[in-house]
């Protein structure tokens, strides 16, 4: 994982400022490993359970007055599957540290469970937000909460997630916006165990979004662990930074096709694939590791 982190942070800090959570006792070692701190990289000494900041970290939004608001999604370790006591505190602790307001949502919402286009359209998956292990209210109440706090006007519910995804099927492995009117959809070869489920998802999107919306297929790799266990690999788990797209690669024959597709769709960006097999072995990818923050964090507020 250290090699992946070195390359990931090196690419990211050249595109946008990065705040990296580290165990307090590891701060000096991590700073040396990553080439030191400056305005492009701030190490935040804070204990957490895992690396998946997309899900545990705050969802930041801009309110009507132009201020930053941290939304707390009540992270519960993907249905109490994994330790999460420290991760669940991150929205509260970071809001206090950086002096942002925080609002606790009335639903359990992980960042990887929802994809938005910034203009009122969102996509999620039924197996996640309605799973009993999230303890969420009815779909109608979920939609009401998303309308109120994320400005969602239309919510598309996909029926399937990846079958080996321990999140129950996050949408960031399935469908991602590249701009407000174009969405890439993970599609698999017929021999992939999730081929039929992914085709069903695409059909739902076509019917919900209509002919004026463009859907672009993104190949789905079939990756297994050293012991032969199938892993939830997806090129759709990319992260979009200013002028840069970081795409998960897996040493698979779909890597080149996926990179070329994203480069065609985002010609003003440089598309770089990173070998994400070390992260995949722990169950996630690049998008899962990164949570964007709106607004500038003043170094003077850091404590």
For the largest sheet, list the strands in their spatial order.
Answer: 3-4-5
pLDDT < 50 stretches: 299-303
CATH architecture of the largest domain: 5-stranded Propeller
DSSP, total strands: 16
End-to-end distance, in Å? Answer: 28 Å
Count of DSSP H/I helices: 11
Looking at this structure, what is the CATH superfamily of the largest domain? L-arginine/glycine Amidinotransferase, Chain A
Shape descriptor: globular
Rg, Cα atoms, Å: 19 Å
Instruction: Quickly give the structural class.
Output: alpha/beta
SSE string: HEHEHEEHHEEEHHEEEHEEEEEHEHH
Mean pLDDT: 95
Q: Kindly estimate the percentage of residues that lie in beta strands according to DSSP.
A: 15-25%
What is the share of helical residues? Answer: 25-40%
- Counted up, domains total 2
Name of the CATH first level of the largest domain: Alpha Beta
- CATH fold-level name of the largest domain: L-arginine/glycine Amidinotransferase, Chain A
For the largest beta-sheet, the strand count, sense and barrel status come to:
3 strands, mixed
Verbal overview:
This protein has 303 residues and is an alpha/beta fold. The protein folds into 2 domains: 1-47, no CATH class; 112-287, L-arginine/glycine Amidinotransferase, Chain A (5-stranded Propeller). The chain contains 11 helices and 16 strands. It has helices spanning 2-13, 27-33, 53-56, 77-80, 90-98, 126-129, 139-150, 195-209, 255-265, 277-280, 286-289; strands spanning 18-22, 41-45, 59-62, 68-72, 101-104, 114-116, 121-125, 154-158, 175-179, 182-187, 214-219, 223-224, 230-231, 239-241, 244-249, 270-275. The chain has a 3-stranded mixed sheet with strand order 3-4-5, with helices on one face. Strand 9 (175-179) and strand 10 form a beta hairpin. It is globular, with a radius of gyration of 19 Å. The two termini are 28 Å apart.
